[in-house]
Amino acid sequence: MNIRWTLFALACVAPLAWAEVPAKLFYTSQTDFTDITLTLKKAQALHPEFIEVDVTLTPQAQERTKALSQAAMHKQMALYLNGRQLNTATVQGVLDGPSLRFSIPRDQLLEMMPSLIK
I need a labelling partner for 84 at 20 to 30 A (CA). Which of 6, 15, 21, 55 fits? Predict the structure, then answer.
């Protein structure tokens, strides 16, 4: 009976051991963004519990974003802002423009606001 439980446990845990770790894209609002615009309320918002954030990337952040998104094509990539993970998504295309849009949960944005306006 012990061998069956061991095999069952390995079958459940093994896929986790080989799961890919998402690529990590880190931004610091003070050095990576030249402009930040928050959309606090939108009539057609599908998820009103999130705030839309539009940013303009510095040239250095734009190059870093392009390189990492190209390397992570069709894989998971986690977005971090000021040390906090915001979300993880599958990269479907190279992010090579100067503008970027992402969402932050309302409660998390309230906590992050002091670091965004420095």
Answer: 15
- The number of domains in the chain is 1
Q: Decide if 15 is inside a domain.
A: no
Q: Is the dihedral of CA 67, 82, 52, 108 positive or negative?
A: positive
pLDDT single digits (tens) 57-105: 999 999 999 999 999 999 999 999 999 999 899 999 999 999 999 999 9
**pLDDT value at position 45?**
75
Q: Are strands 76-81 and 23-27 parallel, antiparallel or unpaired?
A: parallel
| Helix, strand, or coil (residue 83) | coil
Nearest-angstrom CA–CA distance, 80 and 61 = 13
